[in-house]
Amino acid sequence: MKLRWLCWAAAAALLIPIAARAQDAPPPSPTPLSSRLTFDSVPPPPVPDDPLELVTDDAQPVTDPEQRAAEIAVLDNARNLSYVRAHPYDLNTTFTSFDPASGTNSEWTEEDIWPGQDIYRWSTEGPQYSAIFLTKDSLLSSNQPTNAIPLRLAQVRDAIFFAYTWVHEHASVRTATGTLAGEELHCILIAHNVGTRILTGARNWDEYEYCIEPNTGLLMTYSPAPGIYYHYDYQGAAHFHGKIIPSEFTISEAGRIVVEARTLSVTDPVGPNSPIFSGEGLKPLGTGPATLGAAVFSVGGGFLPNLRPQTVSSPPKLQIVVVAGITASDGHLAESEILASTAEDLDQAAIDQANKFGRMQCGCGPGTAPGAVKPSREVIYVVRIFQNAT
Question: Which CATH architecture has domain 60-285?
Answer without folding.
Answer: Clam (2.50)
